[in-house]
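Quick check before the chapter quiz. The format below is the same one you will see on the exam, so make sure you can read both the input and the output lines.
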Amino acid sequence: MPNVPGLRSPYVRVGRLVYFGRMLDKIRLQAAGRLPLEDYGANLGKGFDARCCSFLGVNYEELKARVLAANLTDEQALAWCHEKGGARTDEQCEVWSGFMMKRGWRDEGRKVLERRIGESKLEGKPVETMFDYLDFDEGRDPVSTRAWEG
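Here is the expected output.
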């Protein structure tokens, strides 16, 4: 996948959550016509987007409409999710973020990760998780920056 200006690493947190900001970036970039749909279109609202919305108790299409109509900041969008789907505890957010950052490492997501590593010719890179894969595939090096600590 290409490096898309404005599309942040899945490791970057909004509040207590990883990935959420990336999902918002994809929503905004798609609306602006700056998200390569051949690379990202098939998974919009699915995959990690769907998992994130499920965790927050919100519908992806409703979140998308709300973010775009009200031009919400990341923090406002997260607050709307907490209002709509219920607030999450610190422990729930810690478990969610830990699960997401480790997806593909010693779990059933490993087969998909290995396939994608091969498709993107990233063999030899220290890709251990789906988040690592996304970062390396988009031209970032999460290992050297220790992105998971951010």
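If your answer matched, good. The beta strands are 13-14, 17-18.
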